[in-house]
Design a protein that fits this description.
Layout: H1 4-17, H2 19-25, H3 30-51, H4 56-71, H5 79-91, H6 96-109, H7 117-138, H8 144-164, H9 166-171, H10 179-184, H11 189-194, H12 200-224, H13 232-251, H14 265-281, H15 300-308, H16 317-344
Helix pairs in contact: 1-3, 1-5, 2-13, 3-4, 3-5, 3-6, 3-7, 4-5, 4-6, 4-16, 6-7, 6-16, 7-8, 8-12, 8-13, 8-15, 12-13, 13-14
Amino acid sequence: MIAPADLEHCREAIRHGSLSFHAASKLLPAKVRDPALALYAFCRLADDEVDLKAEKAEAVLRLRDRLDAVYAGRPQNAAPDRAFAALVDDFEMPRALPDALLEGLAWDAEARRYKTLSGVRDYSARVASAVGAMMCVLMGVRDADALARACDLGVAMQLTNIARDVGEDALEGRIYLPLDWLEEAGIDPDAHCTDPDASEAVRAMVRRLVMEANRLYMRSEAGVGALPLSCRPGIYGARFIYAGIGSRLRSMKYDSISARARTNKWQKIGWLGQSLLLSGATVVMPRSAVLYARPLEEVQFLVDAAARGVPQTTRSDALISVLATLEQHRQDQRAHLTGQRAGVT
């Protein structure tokens, strides 16, 4: 069980750090909402640790240690760690799922760029679909088809985030647009980061991301009916709130360079109301055949990990490799600093 004080800390972290999830979580039953708040608080902490820290390799390695401590049953003495450790124990959370998130954050620390849309989906699977799969575990859903649709929703949400943040990411030296799209448009990636421009070509790329996200939002809806009835409004709410960002981008003519796409309180209330109505309709509607569509290739490993329900005790070779690269980077930096100090003295 999550300690009440730790849960309140997580609730406050989400209230201020993730407005969209905070709004949608109000429609979840308490038995799911409370561990979901703990899950999102830990994921929010993980994302901020890497995104906001200058020493990104160091931040990822600290997160690795914190996650190791959680799965060893000895979480660090911090509310998000204790709360996450409680839900890992209560729900037997497969380690492959938070490890996937850690791998995505490690890719961020490497400032990895992606050649194709498939590569962007690989990244989205780790930083977003892994969270969706963990949410399914909290809801007691281990059916492979429902998990595949939850992963569709995660990829759609992350593509929406990427589309919204093209300008902000560029100014931070980050590019999540597929490099082959930039190449086709004759845009140099480094020039894009130096001086991002809301050109027709860039707007077209934003539109392509939004259209791909919309396709996956539509596909994900087939899985909502496979969730417990009490959980459906909250998941529909998250789906509509995030898709609303894409609609806002469309009204801005897909210019995510000059301004940030935002939705307001009243729009969120409207989407939550729509979620309640649609959830009631799913009680009598037959299941869509789309539920049984094959998972995206990039999320198959998440579906397998969550559906089998087998706790994983070791990390994948791919994650071990990227963490070793970051460890070497940390050692090189320390050696460089030591050399600088020696030179000064």
